[in-house]
């Protein structure tokens, strides 16, 4: 086979399935995550996990840093040991925990009272309208996932949910074993602030709806 034939075959492979006009370079518009250098994978994973709102699976993390699953699994084990202070290191006030098939950074249990007290002191007492609406959805539809809340409100609720968690008004009830989604519910603190004993005492919302058959599906209070 001649050099010309090899070049022609290569050109066919590059352009197959792609419309190319004369004088236009062949480009791939598909965005892919930037591959992280091997020596930086632990630090890159640490950065991603610091901002993650939901448990991150090994596959998701591997895709994010452009590394093999085996390498990422090893890096996660290294981070767990690092945060736990193994090998003579400093034991951190947070830990990397596997929950619902994914990994997420949590405050260590012994520091929960300190963090809760700080958050409650720093945050203003008045909730925003968005926070009140989200809290109402959770109160009436619990247990409910963040995605379901966003679907009802038709807006992103990540920051609002974090605010309500920080105030101690809602809590993580459980993680769905199939989807990995965290389901939320209200706390005793909310009940005490509302002056009721249980969510069953919440006012019915049916009279406030234009049509009693619309609004929340299922059991409408």
Helix fraction bin: 40-55%
Number of helices: 9
Tell me the strand percentage band.
5-15%
Number of strands: 5
The residue-averaged pLDDT reads: 79
Span of the ends, CA to CA: 78 Å
Q: Point out poorly predicted stretches.
A: 1-30
Strand numbers in spatial order across the main sheet: 3-5-4
CA gyration radius, whole angstroms: 25 Å
Order of helices and strands: HHHHEEHHEHHEEH
Describe the structure.
The chain has 221 residues and is α+β, with helices and mostly antiparallel strands. The chain is 43% helix and 11% strand. The chain has nine helices and five strands, in the order H-H-H-H-E-E-H-H-E-H-H-E-E-H.
Short description:
By secondary structure, the chain is an alpha+beta fold. The chain has helices spanning 3-15, 41-51, 58-65, 69-83, 112-122, 129-141, 146-153, 158-167, 188-194; strands spanning 94-99, 102-107, 144-145, 170-175, 182-186.
Supply database-style keywords.
9 helices; three-stranded antiparallel beta sheet; alpha+beta; disordered N terminus; 221 residues
Which secondary structure elements does this structure contain, and how are they paired or packed?
Layout: H1 3-15, H2 41-51, H3 58-65, H4 69-83, E1 94-99, E2 102-107, H5 112-122, H6 129-141, E3 144-145, H7 146-153, H8 158-167, E4 170-175, E5 182-186, H9 188-194
Helix pairs in contact: 2-4, 3-4, 6-8
């Amino acid at each position: 086979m001649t050099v010309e034939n090899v070049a022609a075959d290569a050109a066919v492979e590059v352009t197959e399935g792609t419309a190319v006009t004369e004088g236009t370079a062949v480009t791939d518009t598909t965005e892919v995550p930037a591959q992280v250098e091997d020596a930086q994978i632990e630090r890159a994973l640490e950065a991603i996990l610091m901002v993650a709102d939901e448990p991150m699976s090994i596959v998701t993390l591997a895709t994010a840093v452009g590394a093999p699953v085996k390498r990422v699994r090893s890096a996660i084990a290294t981070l767990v040991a690092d945060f736990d202070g193994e090998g003579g290191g400093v034991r951190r006030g947070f830990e990397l925990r596997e929950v619902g098939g994914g990994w997420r950074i949590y405050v260590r249990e012994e520091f929960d009272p300190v963090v809760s007290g700080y958050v409650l002191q720093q945050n203003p007492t008045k909730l925003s309208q968005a926070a009140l609406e989200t809290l109402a959805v959770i109160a009436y539809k619990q247990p409910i996932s963040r995605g379901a809340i966003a679907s009802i409100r038709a807006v992103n609720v990540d920051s609002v949910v974090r605010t309500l968690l920080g105030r101690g008004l809602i809590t993580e009830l459980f993680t769905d074993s199939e989807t990995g989604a965290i389901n939320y519910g209200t706390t005793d603190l909310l009940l005490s602030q509302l002056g009721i004993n249980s969510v069953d005492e919440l006012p019915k919302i049916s009279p406030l709806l234009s049509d009693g058959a619309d609004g929340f599906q299922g059991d409408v209070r």
